[in-house]
Amino acid sequence: MPADPQVLEISKKLTSTATSILIPAIVIIGVIGCILIYLRAKVKKVFDKFMRRKFAKGKTSQSDQCPKCGGNLVKRTGKFGEFFGCSNYPRCKYTVNK
Length: 98
Ligand SMILES: [Zn+2]
Description:
Blueprint (H helix, E strand, L loop, with lengths): L4 H58 L10 E6 L2 E6 L8 E3 L1
Antiparallel strand pairs: 1-2, 2-3
The structure holds zinc ion (ZN).
């Protein structure tokens, strides 16, 4: 069956149409992908900052009071560096590393 020139023409047109749609589509997908990656990085940065602040807050309030006896935690320097110990020491031996 010989190739019909009309069929050839149509298939050529289809190919060029597909290319003219495909290339912009790939470019758009690439641009959207880049924007998404950028936004994700930005959101992660803000989220990390927020989490760090929250975590730091929790750590501060945790080191303010002794969970064992409710006494104040005071900064002490020991053999192994600085740590927080209960102000009721030696009655309460609670310590927390910071
Ligand atoms: Zn204590």
